[in-house]
Every structure is written in structure tokens, then in C-alpha cells.
Amino acid sequence: MVQKKSVASIEHKDRIKEELHRAGVTTLGRYRFSGMYLPEVIHEDEHIEAAIFGRHKELQGFFGAVEGMLVATDKRVIFIDHRPGYTTMDEFTYDVISGVNITKAVYNASVTLYTKVSNYRLSYVGKESAKKFANYIEERLEKRVAQVTESEQRAPPVRETILSAEAVELLNKRDIGVLSTIERTGSLRGAAVYYVVKDGYVYFMTKENTRKARNIVGNEHVAFTVFDDRRLETVQLAGMAERVTDNKTRMKVITSILRTRTYSDGSHLVPVIRMGAETNTLVYRIVVTDFDYTNFINLDAQKSRPPQ
């Protein structure tokens, strides 16, 4: 059933057009396919701070070029290429941006956004919008550097792990485990998460509106299980989940987890980055208090236990 467009949706579209205008995007750019599609992408409580429109790929034949947009909001950066019957979109936080560069020509400019995931280059960009976009990205980078410098004094000490060498080896070979949390009702809830092991801790990331994040607020006791179905090894951890507030550590964890992987629908970032872009990405570490390591190929081997 086709729903009738509401007044709110019209106001939302008008706001997006106005914010694109303030960002320096030309009338042509605002009314191209990607510009017209933006209201479907930008959330009601999200605001465009800078944006550029241009070509990101040159083709031979009738169409000649593929156009797209880079949009910097107060919450994230979006790359979007929308055409009838086709849409590709990448979104990422400012934590993974490493720099921006402008190459100016006589009538336009080329902008390259460097990230730890991929680099995005648009050519034939309006000079005004290119300058505003680069300035805003640089401002966000400067704020991030200042926050990291301030937080370095509060960086957590390296913890001597209680995990056995076999357990650490298995954890480092895998990158997905099952996190078990306790709900307020006392029920258990399991969820698959990507993780990394650093400095004796197991780190994972999630969105603040997820059930596991809410459960941890109420009860920080968690369990974590990793299994290798080819070598028939498993590690079962128990510990306390602590939210990571140190920006330097947080950025290292996000960078380690936030990489492109190949899935059945193609190559893209981990699914968590697509969940609730309007909400914050949280990083937690598990302080391991107990663990079991088992190799099922050799059941006579005793389980590794932490020192008593």
C-alpha cells in the first residue's frame, strides 16, 4: 500500500535542501538523483554540516560518468551513489577518517577523503562546497586529536592476562564469538559479536540501543564463547564488561574491527556499522575472571585453568 506523504516528510525534504544549499552544493547537485534521495537517508535529528557532489567514476559509453555525493553530518559521513534501480551507500564514523585533500582546477576541484576503510574521490566538485567540506572534516579531526591527547593521561594500564597460551592463540585466530548477557528478568541472552584481543582484554563494539548494551548497564557480568569447528577447539570466558571511555583505545579497537569483509551479498563493513546510525557506537572490554580451553580432538588433555 502506498502511503500518502505527510507534511513532516515535506518539511524534512525542505530542510535537507536548505542544509545542502548552506553547504555550497549547487542547485544542479541538490536535484540530481543522489541529492533527491538524501531525505531517505538523513534522520530527523541529524543535520548536514558539509556536502560535496561530483563524479567518482569515469566510464566509456553513453553515460560517461558515475556521480555521487559525500555528506558530512553531525553524526557520521555518508558516501552515496543513487540512480533509478540502483543505490550504493557507505557510512562511517569520524573515528576512521585519516585525512582530506583538495586538488583545485580552474573551474572546479577534486576532493579525496582518506579513511582506514577505503578512500573516496570525487572530481568536478564545486569549489565552495569542496572548501567547506574539507574545513569541516579538518575541524573534526583536530577535535579528535585533542581528545586523544587529553585521554592519553587516563589510558588504562596493560593487564597481565590470566588466559593460557592456547586460549590466546585460538582467540587471535578467530574474530567472531558469542557474547552472553543477563537481562533484568534474570534470563540469559546470547549475541554474536566481532572482537579483538588487546593487552589482556577481549574488546567488542555495539550500538547503545542494542539489547546487550542495555543488559550490561543492568548487570556487567558476561560470558563469551569462541569455537573453531575445524580444529575442534573452544574457549569459554567469564568476566566483567567495562565500557571503554579512553578515546585512544576506543579508536584502536574500532579500527581493528571495522574492516571490509566478504559476505554472501558482497564485500562491506561489519553489520554493526549499519545498525542505528543515529546512535552512538560503544566499545566494551571483558575483564576475564575465569576461563576454560578445550581441544576436543584430544579429550584426554586436561582443560587449561587459570592459576588459583
What does the main sheet amount to?
6 strands, antiparallel, barrel
By CATH, the superfamily of the largest domain comes out as Pleckstrin-homology domain (PH domain)/Phosphotyrosine-binding domain (PTB)
Which architecture of the largest domain does the CATH hierarchy give at level 2? Answer: Roll
Number of strands: 15
Spell the H/E element sequence. HHHEEEEEEEHHEEEHEEHEEE
N→C terminal distance: 64 Å
Strand arrangement in the largest pleated sheet: 8-9-10-15-12-11
As a whole number of angstroms, the C-alpha radius of gyration is 23 Å
Q: Give the total of domains.
A: 2
- State mean pLDDT (0 to 100 scale): 81
Beta percentage is 35-45%
Structural class: alpha+beta
Helix content: 25-40%
From the structure above, extract its key features.
308 residues, alpha+beta, PH-domain like, Pnp Oxidase, Chain A, 2 domains, six-stranded antiparallel β-barrel, four-stranded antiparallel β-sheet, 7 helices, 15 strands, 25% helix
What topology emerges from the helices and strands here?
Layout: H1 7-22, H2 27-30, H3 33-37, E1 48-58, E2 65-73, E3 77-83, E4 86-92, E5 97-104, E6 109-115, E7 119-125, H4 127-151, H5 165-173, E8 176-182, E9 188-198, E10 201-207, H6 211-218, E11 221-228, E12 233-243, H7 247-257, E13 261-263, E14 266-268, E15 281-295
Antiparallel strand pairs: 1-2, 2-3, 3-4, 5-6, 6-7, 8-9, 8-11, 9-10, 10-15, 11-12, 12-15, 13-14
